Amino acid sequence: MENENPLKKEIELYLEEENIDKEKIRELFEEKLRPISENHLYNFSKLMAYYKCAMMSIETKLNVLDVEFSLKHDRNPINDIKSRLKSFQSIKEKMERQGLAFSVESVEEHLNDIAGVRVVCSFPDDVYMLADALLKQDDITLVSYKDYIKNPKPNGYRSLHLIITVPIFLAHEKRQMKVEVQLRTIAMDVWASLEHQLRYKKSFEYTKEMADELLYCAKLSAELDERMDKLRDLTAQNNE
User: Fold this and answer.
1) Are strands 115-121 and 174-185 parallel, antiparallel or unpaired?
2) Higher model confidence: residue 126 or residue 238?
3) First-to-last CA distance in the chain?
4) 3-state SS class at 35
5) Comparing C-alpha atoms, which of 148, 163, 137 is closest to residue 65?
6) How many C-beta atoms surround the C-beta of residue 227 within 10 A?
7) 10 vs 237 pLDDT, higher one
8) C-alpha dist (Å) from residue 116 to 8, 75, 140, 213
């Protein structure tokens, strides 16, 4: 029996996972890339695999820090870790909004949030402790640091955003890949998730009154974090 082309198999798998209609695949690329070659699609799939490896590396580092902290302090600072790889269509749309050419090289150069890791922590202090510990590792390079906890967005959004690079080791090379890491508390995460559902729900109009109410809820979530921090400190003092 004739051996199946491994390149073709990998491309077919990627198209299936992304739910991309092969007959319309040309529409996802600029005119100069038509007709899209197997090589173009293979290179894009390979880039996504690199980003996935980078995400896995960051997740491993964070899990190690979580275990180390639990041994020292008898509690875990991380409540949950979620990772996501930006979809093919989302990447294309973002490149178009920024007026950038849609190519493998351009995507890797200009986009910082293709690979994303969200870390949900128990307390605000845990956010900064984990961020500091991660950034101190000698194979991590900081690209961008945005503190929306100390300086919330106008709508009330709070999180700590890091863009970092981490090396991935391949068979014949080492590559530095960018990963966006968002660190937030449970209260911040609940607010952000509900705000996203309400703001982008298309069955009704998002009004100023709703925005004001969500901002008030954001202030309540910030107060909750502050109160929980104080309770944690009291618990720690009683255990000394």
Assistant:
1) parallel
2) 126
3) 71
4) coil
5) 137
6) 11
7) 237
8) 28, 25, 15, 29
Q: Is 55 left (phi over 0), alpha (psi -120 to 50) or beta?
A: alpha
Q: At the fourth CATH level, which superfamily is domain 25-186?
A: Beta Polymerase, domain 2 (3.30.460.10)
Average pLDDT of every residue of the chain? 84
28 neighbors 88 (Cβ within 8 angstroms): yes
State the pTM of this model.
0.81
Q: In terms of DSSP H, where are the helices of 28-164? A: 38-73, 88-97, 104-110, 124-135
Residue 219 to residue 223: CA distance in whole angstroms: 6
Distances (CA, A) of 35 to 29, 30, 128, 186, 222: 9, 10, 48, 47, 52
Here the tokens at position 100 are 């950038």
pLDDT band per the 50, 70, 90 thresholds, residue 203: low
Residue-range domain boundaries for the chain: 25-186
User: Distance (Å, rounded) from C-alpha 87 to C-alpha 114?
Assistant: 8
Instruction: Tokens 């909004």: give the residue.
Output: 97
